[in-house]
């Protein structure tokens, strides 16, 4: 490597052509994840490459140009304290952008602490300004009654309704600089403290992965053990100082006092809300909900977009540098600092507050299935790790209660009832023991939904073997519960097959199978969302998906059918005078329970909606399956690029997580190959059948969207799925029109999957055939 | 051909040829072009150091060998054409 520009003469310079712009443009055109490499260049080789300009690997890099914070302060490149309230307003908004970037996984040192004003060196420069004024303010505070506890000793709530008609005679001959320093010191301290409390929430929730959030602070202070009441007291102080400055008619405080007061109010509410949400047994969540509602009103006022009309001076901008802690970050994996654009940050801020409000509302969920659905919908919003961690704390409070009030065992028993397990079986000790056994696995399912979307897929693959064990245990408990509840029947081993089929149903096993299929379907559809499937895998995925959905429906139908038949038998027994009175009474009592259960199932809106959704999605997958096979048969599908392996290897790799399960049984590649063997079909027949299924899906969706009791979220999903079905149907029609025409000379078939409804959380693809 | 495919094709044409990359701190890396990605992070096989990766954000200048110079160099470097062997006389 040459040390500088001292290369050879004219001949040498003429040898080289500047291609910087061209290469830059070409690289940009590569698209996300795009890369080109010389043939034979391997990953292993690339790992040996020395990374230049990295403090870890490049000892020769010229770091003279880098100035640390001390240098910049000494040279006056950063002004401390801020010079105006306008500057403080702009800085506060910029810090908020970086705080959101920190929630998003950026390093603390490269995001929040990229602001020089928050660093300990600059904060310590402000302390001398603040000390006397703060003491004077404290001396002026009215005496408060004896506190209930130590933590409330200097308790102060946000000063939302303080009497401002008589501002404190606070400011004496304090300069504007002292006032600005005091207010900015408090604002920055409150930002650091709120980051500390957020960090505490995330660590307690303990669901973060390395890509979610970086726990490293690099020694930069966050004050996790901070004194939230003490910080709130300081915020009150700053608000009083601002009021006093404004009331005194100082020119420097004529304009922006109200805006800075709102920044301070936001920080106070934010700190309080997090503090309340960390209280045991979610005691503080109803208070927190009100606080988040207040913060939602402040979003347009203190968000990043609120300062878009301010033209920042160069010295303001100089206080922000993601590289400011380069020496600290030398030990960390190299990572670029966050890109800080106003519009996305404003949206992220609004979403963060809205997600917190949604999280608070989750505590009112009553049933296990409702919580599962709520968390599925919540997860699609991709909430930040702070929100997800708090929801985790809500799901597992002290005494192993969900939301501080519901025992998981009871939740599971209710879910068994909703599924259709009759009361005479639910009352057995065996059923209760199974519910206890299921607690950990069900909790794991809810916990899985709080991981990020990619990790959810991995976590489901890890959960499925546990649910295989759930099914095995269920079989045992089903046997024992049946025997306990039916002492008059022969022993199981003495029963004929018909007697067994007539009398016994694997209720708990079927319930476990239903939950297993839910997990498998979520695993499958996450593959679309994460764009994991190669286009040549779509036939297998559609086929497996529609099969799972068919088995989901059949599983529930079998239980319902068995219950109906059982009801008929019990009704006959209750009226059979040849039976002993006791037996008749017992049959009659069971009839009452079963009749009520069947009625409740029919009116269980959540289960009815789920069934409808699965039916529609199944029709959609059936149509798509026939469409892609039809395209392949018509020669419109590009052949797979299989350098290593085969279709079978790819199939087995893709569906390996399902091979641990007994129910539903694993579908081997041979079954897939046999069913989708193109020789069994005609192209036109396949495409026409595809159109038929898609039309059925369209018709069912059209009536579903008009049904009452649909929430806005459900309507939006059905509308999005409707769009996908229509688009696919149009493409099938086009394919039918061109099926008999050969491809033009030199044209290559090309099929791609598009996801036009992804923003509405509908990840079913639209298959597009091109040339 | 999509723009992505065209970009890939053009970049592949450059692979293997000699390039000169100037870093943001003024140093120059000179060697065979091995690999590049969307962020313009380039791997070059420097003659003195071996494989180096230059982060895209630190690429101040990216130079390739000028084509006419390259072809002239190739022409100078190419061995002189050997005359066609004389037909073997058939021995009678």
TrEMBL record, chain A:
Signal peptide bounds: none
Coiled-coil annotated spans: none
InterPro entries reported for this sequence: NAA35-like_N, Naa35_N, TPR_NAA35
Keyword list, A-Z: Cytoplasm, Transferase
Domain annotation NAA35-like TPR repeats: ranges: 359-744
Subcellular location: Cytoplasm
Keyword field contains Cytoplasm: yes
Gene Ontology MF term list: transferase activity
One GO CC annotation: NatC complex
Region of interest called Disordered, as start-end residue ranges on this chain: 140-161
UniProt keyword Metal-binding, yes or no: no
Ranges for domain NAA35-like N-terminal: 33-226
Protein name: N-alpha-acetyltransferase 35, NatC auxiliary subunit
Similarity annotation: Belongs to the MAK10 family.
Pfam families: Mak10, TPR_NAA35
Automatic annotation (TrEMBL), chain B:
Superkingdom classification of source: Eukaryota
Annotated region described as Disordered, given as residue ranges: 68-92
Claim: Zinc is one of the keywords in the record: no
Keywords: Transferase
One of the Pfam families matching this protein, by short name: LSM
A molecular function (GO) term: transferase activity
Compositionally biased residues, Low complexity: 73-83
Ranges for domain Sm: 11-46
Keyword Metal-binding among record annotations: no
Protein name: N-alpha-acetyltransferase 38, NatC auxiliary subunit
């Amino acid at each position: 490597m040459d040390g500088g520009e001292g290369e050879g003469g004219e001949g040498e310079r003429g040898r080289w052509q500047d291609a910087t712009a061209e290469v830059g443009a070409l690289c940009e055109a590569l698209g996300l994840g795009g890369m080109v490499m010389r043939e034979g260049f391997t990953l292993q080789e690339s790992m040996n490459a020395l990374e230049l300009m990295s403090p870890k690997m490049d000892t020769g890099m010229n770091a003279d140009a880098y100035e640390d914070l001390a240098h910049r302060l000494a040279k006056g490149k950063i002004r401390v304290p801020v010079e105006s309230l306008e500057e403080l307003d702009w800085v506060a908004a910029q810090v908020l952008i970086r705080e959101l970037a920190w929630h998003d996984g950026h390093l603390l040192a490269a995001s929040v602490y990229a602001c020089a004003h928050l660093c300990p060196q600059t904060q310590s420069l402000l302390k001398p300004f603040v000390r006397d004024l703060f003491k004077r303010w404290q001396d002026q505070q009215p005496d408060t009654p004896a506190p209930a506890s130590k933590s409330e000793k200097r308790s102060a709530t946000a000063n939302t309704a303080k009497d401002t008609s008589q501002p404190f005679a606070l400011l004496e001959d304090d300069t504007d600089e002292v006032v600005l320093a005091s207010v900015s010191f408090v604002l920055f301290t409150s930002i650091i403290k709120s980051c500390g409390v957020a960090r505490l929430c995330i660590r307690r929730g303990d669901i973060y992965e390395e890509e979610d959030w970086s726990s490293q602070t690099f020694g930069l202070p966050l004050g996790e053990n901070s004194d939230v009441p003490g910080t709130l007291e300081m915020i009150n102080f700053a608000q009083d100082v601002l009021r006093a400055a404004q009331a005194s008619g100082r020119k420097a405080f004529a304009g922006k006092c109200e805006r800075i007061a709102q920044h301070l109010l936001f920080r106070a509410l934010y700190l309080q809300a997090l503090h309340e949400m960390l209280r045991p047994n979610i005691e503080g969540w109803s208070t927190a909900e009100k606080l988040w509602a207040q913060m939602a009103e402040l979003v347009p006022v203190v968000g990043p977009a609120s300062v878009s009309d301010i033209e920042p001076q160069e010295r303001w901008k100089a206080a922000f540098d993601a590289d400011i802690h380069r020496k600290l970050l030398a030990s960390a994996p190299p990572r670029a600092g966050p890109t800080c654009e106003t519009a996305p940050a404003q949206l992220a801020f609004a979403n963060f507050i809205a997600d917190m409000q949604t999280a608070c509302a989750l505590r009112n969920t009553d049933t296990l299935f409702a919580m599962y659905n709520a968390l599925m919908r919540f997860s699609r919003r991709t909430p930040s790790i702070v929100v997800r961690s708090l929801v985790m704390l809500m799901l597992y409070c002290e005494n192993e209660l969900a939301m501080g009030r519901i025992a998981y065992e009871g939740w599971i028993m209710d879910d068994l009832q909703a599924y259709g397990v009759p009361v005479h079986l639910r009352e057995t000790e065996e059923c209760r023991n199974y519910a206890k056994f299921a607690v950990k696995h069900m909790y794991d399912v809810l916990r899985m939904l709080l991981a990020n979307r990619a990790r959810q897929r991995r976590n489901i693959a890890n959960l499925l073997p546990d649910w295989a064990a759930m099914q095995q245990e269920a079989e045992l408990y089903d046997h024992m519960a049946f025997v306990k509840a039916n002492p008059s029947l022969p022993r199981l081993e003495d029963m004929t097959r018909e007697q067994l089929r007539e009398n016994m149903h694997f209720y708990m096993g079927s319930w476990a199978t239903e939950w297993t299929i839910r997990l498998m379907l979520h695993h499958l559809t996450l593959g679309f969302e994460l764009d994991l499937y190669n286009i040549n895998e779509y036939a297998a995925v559609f086929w497996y998906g529609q099969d799972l959905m068919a088995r989901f429906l059949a599983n529930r139908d079998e239980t319902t059918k068995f219950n109906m038949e059982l009801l008929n038998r019990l009704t006959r027994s209750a009226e059979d005078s040849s039976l002993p009175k006791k037996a008749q009474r017992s049959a009659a009592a069971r009839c009452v329970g079963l009749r009520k259960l069947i009625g409740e199932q029919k009116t269980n809106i959540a289960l009815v909606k789920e069934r409808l959704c699965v039916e529609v999605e199944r029709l959609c997958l059936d149509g798509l399956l026939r469409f892609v096979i039809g395209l392949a048969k018509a020669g419109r599908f590009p052949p797979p690029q299989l350098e290593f392996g085969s279709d079978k290897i790819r199939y087995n790799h893709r569906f390996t997580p399902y091979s641990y399960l007994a129910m539903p049984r694993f579908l081997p590649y041979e079954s897939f190959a046999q069913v989708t063997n193109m020789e069994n079909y005609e192209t036109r027949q396949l495409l026409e059948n595809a159109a038929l299924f898609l039309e059925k899906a369209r018709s069912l969706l059209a009536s579903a969207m008009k049904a009452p009791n649909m929430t806005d979220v459900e309507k939006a999903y059905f509308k999005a799925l409707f769009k996908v079905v229509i688009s696919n149907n149009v493409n099938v029609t086009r394919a039918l029109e061109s099926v008999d025409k050969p491809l033009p000379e030199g044209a290559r078939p090309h099929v791609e999957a598009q996801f036009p409804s992804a923003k509405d959380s509908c990840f079913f693809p639209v298959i597009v055939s091109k040339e | 051909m999509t723009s992505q495919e065209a970009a890939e094709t053009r970049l592949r044409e450059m692979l293997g040829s000699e390039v000169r990359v100037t870093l943001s701190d003024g140093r120059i890396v000179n060697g065979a072009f091995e690999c590049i990605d969307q962020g313009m992070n380039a791997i070059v096989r420097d003659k003195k150091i071996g494989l180096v990766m230059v982060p895209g954000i630190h690429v101040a200048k990216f130079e390739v060998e000028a084509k006419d110079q390259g072809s002239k160099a190739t022409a100078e470097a190419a061995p002189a054409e050997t005359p066609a062997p004389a037909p073997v006389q058939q021995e009678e």
